[in-house]
Amino acid sequence: MTIREAIDARHSVRQYLKRPIDGEIRKILEDEIAACNAESGLSIRLFLNDPEAIRGLWAYGSFRNADHYIALAGPDTDDLHRLSGYYGERLVLLAETIGLSTCWIAGSYKKGNVQRHLNDGETLAAIISIGYAAKPGKPHKSKTYEQVTETTGPVPDWFRDGVEAALLAPTAINQQRFRITLKDGEASVRALKGPYSKIDLGIVQYHFEIGAGRPVKAE
Ligand SMILES: Cc1cc2nc3c(=O)[nH]c(=O)nc-3n(C[C@H](O)[C@H](O)[C@H](O)COP(=O)(O)O)c2cc1C
């Protein structure tokens, strides 16, 4: 499965099998986390067999056997949330290609139970539950191309391909509060106001880049 194919295959999964993540699969994940940290300056970490972050939650969508998660943390800068979205989604899509399922979680978890594992100076943006799916996810209801774009002049295929991939991105409460602009032949992505929309921005930026096959500015 390619990363582009992973974009089509991915849906949030909240119910997992009681199954460890180990061996080669664990190593692939850990290597990619190390690569993301080296590139971004974040301190992303994988926590295995730690059910305390997500146990027994009343939140929308009930979690089961959510024993493993990725914590997205880093220095408390203006860009922490976008960067967490961008690199977190890179991990989500890689996970999909190796048979793992995920769910972004920014609200419905016990933040203190994760924060206590982190070092001073590491601020937590969100976590991503990860594991082998017990119950598959399903496609989200989506806004249309027209609702999320603003363009001037002719629209190239790569832009349409980028938007198509962006509309498949996970966003907090499925809000899709972003706009993708094409001006003078250049694309950019921006977040509208909404809960966690700066994390969404990084996620959407990553999806657009995979779909379009070229970098896009985030504003
Ligand atoms: C930044 C962010 C935060 C999220 N927080 C939560 C959460 O706290 N609890 C939860 O159950 N789902 C959470 N989600 C998952 C979204 O509800 C889900 O991505 C959205 O409904 C779209 O569905 P899909 O991921 O299956 O495409 C979050 C997603 C994102 C991107």
Q: What features would you describe in this structure?
A:
- With 219 residues, this protein is α/β, with parallel strands linked by helices.
- The protein folds into two domains: 3-131, NADH Oxidase, CATH 3.40.109.10; 145-218, putative nitroreductase (tm1586), domain 2 (NADH Oxidase, 3-Layer(aba) Sandwich).
- Helices cover 36% and strands 18% of the residues.
- It contains seven helices and eight strands, in the order ααββαβαβαβαββαβ.
- It has helices spanning 3-9, 23-40, 80-97, 111-115, 145-148, 157-167, 197-212; strands at 45-47, 69-74, 101-105, 123-131, 149-151, 178-183, 186-191, 217-218.
- It has a four-stranded antiparallel sheet.
- A hairpin with a 2-residue loop joins strand 6 and strand 7.
- It is globular, with a radius of gyration of 17 Å.
- The model has no long low-confidence stretch (mean pLDDT 96).
- It binds flavin mononucleotide (FMN).
- Flavin mononucleotide is lined by residues 11-12, 59-61, 103-108, 126, 137, 140, 170-174, 196, 199-200, 203.
